[in-house]
Structure formats: structure tokens, C-alpha cells
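Quick entry between incubations.
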Amino acid sequence: MGSKILKDIEEKWNKKWYEEHAFETEHDERKKYFLNFPYPYMNGYLHLGHLYTLMKLEIMARYKKMRDYNVLFPFSFHCTGTPIIAAAERIKEGEEKEWNIMRMMGIPDEEIKKFSDPVYWTQYFPKEAKKDLMSLGCSIDFRHSFITTNLNPRYSKFVKWQFRKLKELGYVTKGEHPVVWCPNCKSPVGDHARLKGEGVRPEKMFLIKFNVEGRVLPCATYRPETTFGVTNIWINPNVEYAIAKVDGEEWIVSKSSVEKLKDQKHKVDVIGRILGSELINKKCSNKLRSDVPILPAEFVDPEVGTGVVMSVPAHAPYDYIALKDLGVDIKPISLIKVDGFGEFPAIEIVERMKINNQKDSEKLEQATKEIYKKEFHTGVLKDITGKYKEMKVSEAKELIANDFRNEDLLVDFWELPEEVICRCLTRTHVKIVDDQWFLKYSDPNWKKRAHEALARMSLYPEVVRKQFDYVIDWLNDWACTREFGLGTPLPWDKKWIIESLSDSTIYMSMYTIWHILKNVPEELIDDDLFDYVFLGKGDKKKLVERGIDERTLDKMRNEFDYWYPFDLRNSGKDLIQNHLAFCLFNHVAIFPEDKWPRAFGLNGHIMVNGEKMSKSKGNFKTIRDMVKEFGVSPLRLSIALSGEGIDDANFDTELTKSLTMRIENLLRFLTSKHETSSEWKVQDEWFEAKIDNTVADVESAMESMMFKTAASKCFFDLQNDLKFYSKWRGTPNDRVLRKYIDVQTKLLYPFIPHVSSEVMEKLSLDGNWPSAKRVEVPKYKKYVETVMNDLKSVKKLAKGEHAKIFVAEDWKFDVIGKDFAEAKSIIEKHVEKSMIGKMLKMYKNGSDLAKSEQMKVLKDSKDFIEKETGLSVEILDADEGDDEKARASTPKKPGILLW
RNA sequence: GCGGGGGUGGCCGAGCCUGGUCAAAGGUGCAAGGUUGAGGGCCUUGUCGCUUAGUGCGUUCGAGGGUUCAAAUCCCUUCCCCCGCACCA
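Done. Structure below.
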């Protein structure tokens, strides 16, 4: 839909801008402003979420341009990582769900087939995204666009350069890392490749060893400290267990845990099997507990942990209730003191929640969670724990685990808290990948520098700073390589692909030179070139000798030096704890301080009519659909009005629709001829001040990225002011009207540049931001409104066609500003005793306008008042009138007589 | 649990830092009137309650308490909601 008038204008200007290369720029004498967007992932069309974040930058770019900055706004497309490759795979397999996603995007089946090749995604979607961006008239210099992955060797070389640098600095190290692993596919299983268990992560457990007849029973637990309170061991009597040589010892474990142990760096050989029932009633022991009976329990799941569980009835509701069901008389052993509970918290909660038996698993889960939480965070260990007594559970846990590990009592074990099923229908488990590469974000020195960088940055909004500092401290080593996915191979260990957040941390520097680099022969691009261009290091002569044109080299170096660092990077708030934090870390590692980022902008998520946008709700909106539905200008303006700051924004479709007409009307007003007057009245004084203030308000809002405030002030408020002014003034003053048109057009330019450009062209306005002047707005409007309201309410209650308005007597104005006693004595001279109280109130209220101003305002507004109220009006000085209503006048409000 | 952000009139949302000009901007919704062939749009008015030939009163900004001449705004307590807690874009 949208509007034809606006559409024509939008198309006209889009065409003009891109044909004339209006947004292509290189360094010059002006101050520069370089802003960028975290490149969007190219597994679909750009959508409302992108648009919201994007508009922050687009508005800023347009604004800075008006303020005579040299503005660089590049845009690229992200293709590394697993989602594209996984989706391509699913298309290839003909998976219904994936095909439907593509169909919903409006892609015909013939075309969808082509998406079984991941490379096709990297060609198709960037191209389409660019179309969308251009339809919106974004002021992007597309000469700086690239796609990521090794399909783009120049980019890949850059990433390799970056990683070699990081390695030299000692920031890339090798280590272990748990992953969700499919034993059938023999690969890690990301969320996208799961039938069940999306979002489930490996959790660290512990195996506590007990000995039975020369064999080890490893009990899986999250709480090693509870070993002190073990009363028995649970074994499922109906399950066949494996006897296996594990790292030289004979262990009894469930069969499924054999594979887990193998994948978690243990040497495991199965040498026999044993029924659970054969173990029942035997006794086992370890250093801490002896003569511990093995008891049967059907709740023990052989798929979880090792299928061997230790029982701590004092603190584990399951264990207590199982013992109770079994009817065995075993005394629980208490080891944790916790507020609000007595000696045996598990027993208390079971009774309190009225849990009758093991089958009440829902309540048992809940009880277990509550007890665990409470004991972990507020519990204190009792004397029975020996040297750990009086310690908090939360502090002692790791310490105990370490000690137990050293005493050969405990072995680490990773487990999935819920079942995760691979797409191939296989149940997965945790594997320890042991030659994984990490970025050492845990390095204290590195963290310190990241904090320093943050401290000198601007953040929009400022409230995210605390969170950022917290994130920098919280970040741990990041597994930066993958075995699977699109991306750049790790230069020194080619079996690994660099993970897709790790290859995207300093690429904004590439923007500054991409338009040049893309024409440099690929074979000439190497680390030396990047060292020279980005760091000014190395020998330029050698590079030139090798065949790179010297001018090209200088140009790249100059462009980078001019544009970098970036002045603003804006993103959704979800990138704080990963991408943006990484960006900071990597910048401080590689670049000198004067190239560290200047500002981050963060925005919330955007909702549609108060609901989260989602494909399943059917309110998923792509940019192209929205452009079609609402038109470019209403869409742009509505997005700007939808929100600011870190809170979630709301895109209101009703508002957007109503904007179409409002923009059209405004356009018509701005470009039509108006009858004007050269006379200067109070109305003109008021409106001019109002315009000046609006410019000042909007400007300060723009500077701090408060675009909703800015848009609402310059679109709604300023037009409302004009509306009132027109009614009030009748024929507008020539100069003031021209000023309004000029300001209105320009302030709206960042939001609806097509419309503004059209007006500017028609009226030959310059394209500069108006100068802001903060002035005091005279209170004329408020005064007139007061008088009008009074007239109207009086008219409602009394009949009459004529009104006399009495501006208060001189002495009433005299009272204002005097001290209390003096005021009182003046009043006493003029009124009866009974009225003194009332008059003193008037003294307290004061007045915004002097008497002469009031007279002038009323005289200049006479036509307006008569028209609005339908009364014929006389304006009088109360000093010259003798009506009782003249006496009722105050400096705040004149007296009114209707007749 | 830790960290961050919030709770304002039918809804969205400004105000809170720097207390008074706040019954609280603006938008949207709703209602009435005008314009219009109808609808839409646009324009006007109303939209906490009471009262009234006007400038008045009461109750309201999650809840409770406090500071103050004065609190949506400051302090304390409490309840509730949202987001993040990673190896993933």
C-alpha cells in the first residue's frame, strides 16, 4: 500500500542518490565520522530487528552529514559459522521445515533447490539485503561491502593475519573443552542439529569412588561435599551393569556410561558384566565412609551419570523418600546447617510438601531444586566435615572437589542435565575435545586493558556501562575454533575453522580500505601488507618491490589512518556479552590506543504491537514486506518513534499507517504557497522562540542517540505548535513561517530524507542543520489558553454573547514580589477584611506576565478569542471598569463578565 | 544465586538524576461534533471522580513506611516483571 505521492518521491531520490554515488566517500579535510553495523547473518532476508538497529545508524549518519562531517557508513554480510551450512544440508535432505521457511520467504521451489549449496546462500541473501537497504535509501557506501568466509580470500587473509598476531601475543592457547557429542555422527551437535534438547549445555559433575570387593563404584553427583553424609548406595536391580577397566582400575558402571567415559579422556575396556541385583546388600566403603550398604532403587536411570548413585537422605529428598519406601531403617547423616531448616532439610521439605512416595516425581524435583539452591547459597558445613566445618557450601565445594581429586576419591565427569537427541536420532553425551584452541579472555592483563578501553568510550545509553565492565570480568577463555562450518582455517592448524564470533572482532578496520584492497591482486596480500596498512610497521620498499603499487599502498594506509577508529558501532543489546566485548578485547590486543573504539550504541529488541516478533506467531516482518505494506517514509519514521535506549521497542502498525497521511499533509503544507503578513505580534514572538527551542532540544537528543525523543519533538510537537500558532495568529508572519518551514524540513531529514530532500529542492533550502539557540519561551500561549478555558466554562454556565475581560488592577500586580508584610498592607488598603485571605493566595500565586504584556497578548489575540468562543470581546483594564467581575480579577487570571 | 534493567492514567510511553510550574507531555485507542456520496483520512472537543458563571476539592504514578512546608520524583522495607549467565548467531 503506502502512498503514491511519497512512493514517487522515494524512488526519485533513491535513484538520484545511488546513481550519483552520493554516499561514496574518501578522506578529505573535513572531520570524519565512521559508523558501522555488526554485519547480519545471511541465512534469510533482513527483518524488522535488523531495521531497528540499522535505523539508529542511518539516522546518525544523515544527521552527521548535515553537520558537515565526512561520514563513512559501510555494510557487510556475515556468512561464517554453522547455521548456513546446516540449513543447506537440510534443504538438500528435503527437510520439510527448512523448505517451508524458504517458501515463507517467498522463494519459489525451483530456486530453493539451489540452496542445498551453502555457497548459494552467500550469493543470494547479500544481494537481496543490499536491495532492501537501497529501497530504504540508507546512506551506505556499498563499495566497502564484502562477505565473510574463505570464499572471500582477501577477508580470510585478514583473519589469518589477526590470528597470527594474537598467537604472537600469547592470547591463543590450546586446551580442553566439553561439547555435546553425537557418537553416531562423530561430531559436536549444535542447537540447530538437535531433535530434542535445544539449549541444553554440558554440566560438570563429579564421580565419587566407593570400593566394593576390589572394584570401584563411581557415584555421579553435583555435590561432592555430601559424601560426608552418605548412608547407602543406590543401584538399579533391573539393569545390567558393565565391569570395565578404567584407567587401570575395575569399575562397575552402566553400559551407556562406558562411551561417555571413553570420550572424557579415560581409557576404558569392558571386561565383563554384572546384574544390578547381584550387588544389592553388599557393603562398600571409601576413606570417608565405611560399611555403606548397596540398596536397590528403580529411580536410578542408567542413562544418567554412571547409573550408580550415592544416597544422602538428610539433604536429598529423593534419597530420603526412597529409603522410606523401601522400609529400611537407616539414620540420615546431617552435614549442612541451613537457615529455616532443622537437622534434616530433606525430611522437612518432603513432609511440608506432602510427598508420599517416589512416584510423586514432579514435587520431588521441585523439592530437590529448592533444597540444593538453599543449601548451596546459604548453607554452612557442620563439624562432621572435619577441616571444612564452618565453611559456606558455595565456597567449600570446589575446595573439597580438589582435595578429593588429589586423594583419588573423585573424578570429574561431564553430563547433560537433559536428554539431547541428535538429528540422526542418536542420544548424545558430553565429549572432551582436547586440542581445542582458546582465546585467553581470562588473562588479567588483557582484561585490564579492555576495561581501560571501555572507560574512555562513550556508551549509548550510558546505563550499559556497568554491565559491560561486569562482562569483561566474567568472560572466560573462548573456544575459538570449530571442526565444522564456514570460515577461515586456523593458519597453523588447518583442521580447525576459526569460529564465527572470533573472526569478526576487528573487521571494521577492513571497511576503511576494502574499496582499494579488493582490486589488489590476491597473491600480493599477506601479513606484511596488513602490518604496514593497519599498524604502520615494516618496510614499505619491500612491499613495493614485491609488486604492490606504492600509491595504492599509501592510499590504504592513509584511508585507514583517517577513518579509524570507528566513532560508533550500534547493535542489539544481546551482543554485549559476546561480540562487543570481543571487539574490545581484540582491539586492545592488536591496535594502538588511538585506534580503540570510540562508542557503542545499544538498543533493545523490537516488538510488533506489543508482541515479540516470531515466525510462529505470524508477525515476523521482513524489511521488504514492511516497505511494501507501509511505504519507506512512514516506516522509517515509525521505526525511529518505536523506541530508544536499552528497553525493548514497540513497532506500532496503527501508528505507522497513520503516519502516511500525516507525512503527506506535512509535505503539502511545506511546499504550498501561504498568505503571510509582515506585522509582528506576540504570537510570532512565541512561535519563533518555540522553534528555536525545538532545534536545541532535537539537537541534544540526536547527539545522545535519543532518536525517539528527537523524532517525536520535531514531528509531533513542532507540528502541534504550528497548528496552535496558525489558529491563534490567523495569517502567519512571513519570516516566522519561513523559519518554521526551514527548520521543520531539516530536522526531519535524518528520519525521512526523501521527503525532506524533495522539499529542500523545491524551496531551494540549503542542506545544513539549523543553528540551535536556547531561549526563554514567553508564557503567552499558556495565558491565552487560561483565558479561553475560563471563557468557555463561563459560557457553558451562563448565557451571553458578549464578554468583557478585565486585566487586574495595578495594585494587584504591585503586590507580587513584595515581602509578606508589605504585600499584606497593600492588600488591606484595597479590600474588605473578609477578602484578605483570598487575596494573599493571589499574592502567593504570582503571575507569569506583567500587566502590559497581558494587555498586549489579549489585544493581539482578540480575533482568535472571538472566533474560538463565538463571543464578542472587549479587553479592559480593571482599574477603569467598575463591575464586580473586574474586582474578581487576579494577576494570574483576568476577570470575566458575560452578558 | 549472581549481574543488569524495570513497574506511571484503556494501551504505549515521557517525567524520576537536578523535589514544587504534575491530574502528570506526546502518541495510540475510545466517545461526541465538523468535513466527506459512504468509509477512511483530516479538523475540533472530551477521556480519574466530584463540584462550579470560571480561578475549587478529593483520590492517583506496584505496596508499605520515612524525610520535607512540599514527593511520581529523595531514603528504607517489601512484592512483582523482563534480560543475560556463554562457546552461539
